[in-house]
Specification:
There is one protein chain. This protein is 48% helix and 11% strand. By secondary structure, the protein is mainly α. It has one domain. It has a two-stranded antiparallel ribbon. The longest helix is centred in the middle third of the chain and has 8 residues. It is elongated and about 55 Å long.
Length: 54
């Protein structure tokens, strides 16, 4: 837990006594170039396609 916090990676201690870290937070800190190049898919619907079909 101390290592994560010293390196600026958010972590919490779970009820089971294990350290919990978000995978994306870890990857963003440890591999900054790959996180910046990876684009996320848009989650909004493409309504313009519906207008063309009708």
């Amino acid at each position: 837990m101390a290592w994560f916090l010293q390196n600026g990676i958010p972590a919490v201690l779970g009820v089971d006594g294990k350290v919990k870290v978000l995978r994306e937070a870890y990857r963003a800190k440890m591999m900054p170039s790959s996180a910046a190049t990876r684009a996320r898919a848009k989650t909004e619907p493409r309504l313009d396609l519906l207008k063309k079909a009708s």
